[in-house]
Amino acid sequence: MRGDSIQLGPEASPYSLEDALISYEKALMIDSSFPEAHESIGYYFDVIDIDLGRSEAAFREAIRCGAGESSVAGLARVLSERGHPTSQILSFIDQHDVEHSPNLQEIRQEIEGGMWQPKQSNEEA
């Protein structure tokens, strides 16, 4: 929660976005199977630090630990941003409860529409 509070807090906060990442990593030191911490790290490396390899790994671990549709959507977006074939990504999404998930329906439509095109990651720069 501390990491999320830092990310969503005011710009004038005494904490940096790196402090949010440190918070997620500390949570994993306490409980390495805490899916929300893995998911937050996934989003951190997708949106803030743009390291798509680390983002993908974190989302995969979150899902392995029992995370839900937000991690599935995050992983699908990262796979699209990394240039994976759209048909494979849509198949991955469809393995989950898309029919009852507006979040997964939305990411599916965005990927079908080409919204999440490959981007250069800091790891590739």
Q: Structural class of the helices, strands and pairings? A: mainly alpha
Identify the CATH homologous superfamily. Answer: Tetratricopeptide repeat domain
Secondary structure: number of strands = 0
Average pLDDT metric: 90
The domain count comes to 1
Helix share bin: 55-70%
Please give the radius of gyration in angstroms. Answer: 15 Å
| Broad CATH class | Mainly Alpha
Strand content: under 5%
| Secondary-structure element series | HHHHHHH
Provide tags for this entry.
mainly alpha, Serine Threonine Protein Phosphatase 5, Tetratricopeptide repeat, globular, 7 helices, 0% strand, 65% helix, 125 residues
Fold and architecture overview:
- It is globular and about 40 Å long.
- The protein has seven helices and no strands.
- 65% of the residues lie in helices and 0% in strands.
- The termini are far apart.
- It has one domain (2-112): Serine Threonine Protein Phosphatase 5, Tetratricopeptide repeat (Alpha Horseshoe), CATH 1.25.40.10.
- By secondary structure, the protein is mainly α.
- Helix 1 runs antiparallel to helix 2 (17-30) and helix 3 packs antiparallel against helix 4.
